[in-house]
Write a structure and sequence with these properties.
Layout (H helix, E strand, L loop, with lengths): L15 H15 L17 H6 L9 E9 L6 E10 L4 E11 L10 H16 L10 E5 L11 H9 L3 E5 L10 H9 L8 E5 L5 E6 L9 E7 L3 H10 L7 H22 L1
Parallel strand pairs: 1-4, 4-5
Antiparallel strand pairs: 1-2, 2-3, 5-8, 6-7, 7-8
Length: 273
Amino acid sequence: MEKLFETEAEEASPSLQDHKRWIEAQDMLRRRLVTEDDFAWKLPKTTSSEREEEPEEVEMLRYVGGVDVSFSKEDPSVACGTLVVLDIQNLQVVYEDFAIVTIDVPYVPGFLAFREAPILLELLQRLKKKDASPFYPQLLMVDGNGILHPRGFGLACHLGVLADLPTIGIGKNLHHVDGLTYSRVRQLLEAKENSTRDFITLTGCSGHVWGAAMRSTLASLKPIFISVGHRISLFTAIIIVKMTCKYRVPEPIRQADIRSREYLQKRQKGASE
């Protein structure tokens, strides 16, 4: 799970050698990043007439994954990585898997992927090995940021490139990059000219579009922050996020978060009895 850079203290400092190695790895992976639509499937149609016009042989987006990592309150080195897959037709969970691990990599701002990505990649690999499971996600939503990141390469980008999957980053907090600040974004969302809009694009001082801030439900006071992970455009990412939001957070992320915390609590309770 991504943390707000400005308020979260580092748990530990990596060695200078680790820091240099992580930067080199990010730079290498970034060269493989695709920020446009690059997939064979099409978005589900919303009306019956549209569905009837679509040829049966056309692959439609159906299985959307969500990933999250929860940490033990008693022992912060113990974590539970979770992968869920939802059927986008009814937003029901059709697959779930968990991994309880001990993490010795410290949380360092800007390098979350080196702490969490190995856990989540292993869960994806386990699903792929299950006799070509039909539930392997066509798209992955990540509880973390994509290009909306100080180095332009957050956890969603990292996972997307390594898994070769279209990914969308969903942040609950805003990374202050390129002049973007949370207070400024809230002002824009609450401005009269944006009162009827459910999202605004996040354009930095440089003119670069980093993502979008979205009010996912009418009752939601806090926006979520959508950014491109890999092999998907921001336009398409926003459409899919809207399709999967029942509450503030898209359902694949919400279910991964809920189930991850519940599974970790059950395992710890069982171990103490």
